[in-house]
Amino acid sequence: MKLWRRYVILFVSICCFPIVISQACSPDDLSFYGYSFIQPEIVNKATPYAPFFLRFDDFYQSVSSTVVQEKTNLEEWKERFCALVDLKDLRTVIYQSSLERLESLRLAVKSKKTPLPVSLQANSFARHLKSNQCTEVIDYLIFAKTCEPHVTRATSWEQPQRDSSAMMELVVEGKKAFLDTESHYVRLRYAYQLIRLAHYAKAYEQVLTLYDFLLPKTDAHASILDYWILGHKAGALYRLNRRVEAAYLYSLIFKHSAAKRESAYQSFRIRTDEEWEQCLLMCKSDQERAVLYAIRANAPLSIAAEEMEKIYQLDPINENLELLLVKEIKLLEKDLLGLEFNIHRQRNKNEYQIPRKMAGRKLTKLQQFVRKCNQEALVARPEIWKIADAYLEFLAGDLYAAEKTFTKIKPEITQDSLQSQVAIFELCLKLNQIDTMNAPEEEFIATVVRNNELLQKYPDLSNFLYDRITQLYQKEGKIGKAFRCQYDVQTLAYNPQIDIIDSLLSLSQREDKNRFERMLCLDAEGNEFENFLLDLKGTLLFSQNQPEAALEIFKEIPPTERSKYQLNPFHENLQDCVECPINDTLWYNKAELIERIFELEYQAKADLKNGPRYFYILGLAYYNMSYFGNSWKAMDAFRSSATGSRLRPNQVYDLYGSPFGNLEQTDCSQALNYFEKARLLSKNPELAARASYMAAKCNQKMYLTSKANNYSPYSNRIPNLSEEYLVHFKILQQEYSDTKFYQEIIQECKYFDAYVSKN
Amino acid sequence: MCGSSRFPFRLLCCYLSFLVVGILACQKAKPPTIQPAFYHWKSRLALQPEEQDYLAQLAVQKIYLRCFDVDWDQQQQMAIPVATLQMDSQALSGMQVIPTIFITNRTLIHLPNEQLDRLVAQISQKLQTLMRTWQAVVIPEVQMDCDWTLKTKAKYFSLLTSLTESLSPQNIQLSATIRLHQIKYFSQTGVPPVARGMLMFYNMGNLDDPQAYNTILDLSIAAKYLAPAAQYPLPLDVALPLFAWGVVYRDDKMVQLINGLEATQLKDRSHFLKLDENHFKVLESTYLNGDYLYQEDHIRLERVATTNLVEAAQLLAKHLKPMSRTVSFYHLDPAIIKNYPYETLETVCHSFR
Question: Does the model's pTM come out above 0.80?
C-alpha cells in the first residue's frame, strides 16, 4: 500500500510539479506569462467565423487561404459529381495535369475507342468523365488551364507576366464557350474564369459588364464560386473608385465564404463616416449590418465592447457576439487574472504593457453589457452570458459575488462544455479564496495536482495554482514550501540558502506530513531529498569555515548514503586541472574528509618534526577543495566553468533557472595560510620551495578574483599581477632559486617563468 | 662653364618647386560635393507634374526607389516579397535610380540559415527583372534597409555580403541604411559589409510613449547619439525626414500612425477636441482617412518644421566626417513637398558643404 502511494506521488510529482524550469523555452524566453481558462469549446465550433475571430490554436491552424480554396473547390467538384469521384483523383486532373494530358483526356472522352492516358486509367474522375462523355467539363478544364498562366504564379517571388490583349482574347473565346455550354454549373465556372481574367487584365468596366451579362445566364445551385466571382466584382468596383459598393460586397464575402474571408477582411475599406453610413444603407438586413460591425470589431486594437453593443442592437442572436465576448474575456484574463501573484507581472508590464491602463474600465463596460444581455435574454445562448457574468465578477476581484453567481447559475447549465467551463472557473475562484495554507487546504491542493486530466486540459492551471500558493506560503513565512512550489530542490545547489534548506529539512524530517507535503519533499526524479539537503547544508557550512558544524550535519546522513562523493584533496597538483583523475585508492566521503583534516591539524601542531609537511598537506587540501582544485565538490555543490572568465570575490553570477544565481567557492586564503606556515616552519628548503610555489598560486588566484583583475582569459597574455599578489613568486625566486624544485617548476610552469623573467 | 650653365637650371628648379608648393598651399580645398536626392516610398510610381518641377528646381538627379519589401510569411514559412513597385518605366528617364529593398527583422529571425542563399538569389532575380523594365536610367547602387538587431546581425550581414557578390559583376555597389543607435553603438551592433551607409536621421523618439514630443525628429535626442559618427567606419550619406503623421493612442497604447495627417483635417469640433497645437482628443468615434478612431482616442501630430530641418543638417555637418555625400529627403509626395520650399532644401544641402 505504502509502495503504491509512493508511486502515485512520484507520478504526480513528475507530471505536474513546478514547471517553471521545465517549460521555459530558452534562456531568453521573455514571452508573456499569464493564465487563461476560458475554453474555445464554449462557443459553437460550427460557427463559421470562429477561426477568424478567436484564433485559438485548435481552431486556427495557420491553414493558408490557398489551401482552403483548393480544398473547398475540390469538395464542390466532388459534390457536383454526386460524390462518385475521389478527391485525390480530382486534384490530379484539376490541379496537377498539364494541358497536354488534358487534351489526351479530351480525345479519350470524345472517342469510345481511344483509351484514357495511362497515367489517368485508374483515376475515378477521368473514368467518370469518359464513361459519361462529359465533354463540357473537359473542355472547361482545358480552357481553365489555358487561363492559368495569366492569373496564377508558382511562387510569391515570380513576377506575374500578364499579357492583357491575350487575356482579353481568352475572354472572347470563353464567352463563346460559355454560351455553347449547357451545364449551368460549368457555365458558372466559365463565368468565374472570364471575370477573373478581365479583373487581372485591369479591364474593370469589362468585369462589371461580364458580371451582368453572364450571371443571369447561369442557373446553378448555390456555389462557392458565387462569392469568388463577387470578390472580383468587388475588386473592380474598388478600382473604379466605387468603394462603398466594393466594401458592401466584401462584407457579404466575409459573411459567406470561408476561403475568401481573410482576403475580404483585408480588402474591406471604408474611409469616412459617410461611406460607412452608405454601406449600412446598402445592407439588406440587420444581419448584414451586424456583419459590418463585426468586421470593424475584428481590428487588432478595436474597442470590441462598443461594436458588440451595435451588433446586439441589430441582431441579438448574431453568432459573432459570443466570439467577441470570448475574445474580450481572454484579453481581460491577461490583464487581471492572478495579477497579484503572477511571478512575472513586472516583466509583463515592462515588455507588454499588460495590464492595460484602462483594463478596469474595460471590464466594467463589458460587465454592463453582459448584464444587459442577461436581463433582456435576447441572445442566442443565454447560458454563456450568465457564465461570463460570474467570471467577470471574479476577474473584477469580487469573489463573493462570483461564488454566489456561479452557485445560482449552475443548475441552469446543461451543455457539457459549459459545465466543465464553470467547473474550472469555480476551481480558480476557490484557489483565489484560500487565504491560509494549512493541512485542509494542502489536502485540497494535493487533490487538484493529482488530477492529471484536469492539468492537461487546462495547461495554465499548474502555474496558476503554484503561483497562488507560493504567494500564500511567502506571506506565512513558509519559505521552504514557497521555494518548492516554484523550483526543484536541486536548484538550491547553485547558491545554497541556509534558511530555505533549514525550512525544507524540518519539513522533510517531520513524521506527520500530509499528501501535499510528501509531494513537496520529492525531487524531480521522485526521490526524497533529505540527504541531499543535509549534504548541501554540510557543504555550505564547510565552505563557510565551520568544519565542526559541517561534520555534525554530514553525520546525520546514514553511513550507507555518505559515499556519494569520493574525494581525496590531499594530493599535490602543481598544475591546475579540475577534471584530471586522481591516481589513488584512498578515498574519503565528506565526513571522513573533515575528520582527516582535524587529524592533520592536530598532527601539524603536535608533531614538531613533521609539522611543516602536515601544514603543506592541509594547504593542498584547501586549495584542491576550492573552485580551482579537483576536489571542489567538498565545498561546493555546483561549479560552472563558464564562471572562470569573470571571477570576482563573493560574486553571485547570473544563472538561468536559478533564482539565487550561482556562487562559486573561490576562497584560497585558508590554503595560503597553511602554505605560509609550512614554508616558515620548514627546515627543508625543497618543501619550503614547494610551499612558496603553492602560496604563489594562491596569490595568483586571489588576484584573479579581486576587483583589480583586468585579465581576459581570451587574450594571449598572462595575468599581470600587481605587487601585492607577487609576494610569494618573489620569495620563491629570491630565497629558493637554488633548490631542485625551483629548477623543475621554472621549466614546467610558464607563468612562473614569465614572472621571473619580468622581475 | 658647366658650373655656370647648371646654376640657372638649379635656380629654375627651385623656383618651380616653390611655385608648385605655393600654388598648392594657396589653393582652397575643394568643397565636398553634396548631391540632393529623394526617397520614393510608395508602391506606385507616377510622378505628378509638381513633383517633377520640384525635382528639377532642386536639381535632383538621384532617386532611392523602394522596389519591394521582404517579409516573413507565417503560412508559407518563407520570406516573400510584398508590395512590389508598379511604375511607369519612363518616369525616371535620365536619372540615377537606387533600388531600395526593405527587409523586416522578423524575416531574418525566422529565416533558417540554409535558406539564406536562396533568398539572396530571389532578391537578385527579382531586382534584375524589375531593372530590366526601366528605361534610360543609371543604376550605380542598390540599397538594403533593415533595422537589424544583435540577434539578426550575423544573418543580415551574411545576406549583404552575398548580395554584394551578386551585384558586383554589373558594377553596382551595395549600400545599407543605418539607424542612429547603430552609429552610437557600432562596436556592438556591427558595421554592415557594404560600400556606403545611409544614416536615417529620423524616427528618434519612442512611439509607444504618449508623452513623447516629436518622435520624427528630436535634435536633443539625436545629439546624444552622434558623438561617435565621425569614427564610423563607412562613408555615410544622410536621409532627412520631410514627412508628417498623426500618432493615435488608445488607452495610452499606440495603435495607429496616420500618414500625412495635419491639423486642418481635425477641424471638425464635433469629433475632435484640440488640446494644444499638436494634441487632439476624439470626442466621438469616427473614420479618419480610412482609420476608425474611437471616442477617447488621443492624437499627437508630428511634423518636421523647416527650421528643424536646417538645424538637423547643421548638427549632422558638425559630427560627420567632411566628405562628398548624398543628402536624401524622405519622401517624395506632392502633399509633403508643398510644405517645404525647395530653397529650404537647398539650404539644408548647403549646410553640409
Answer: no
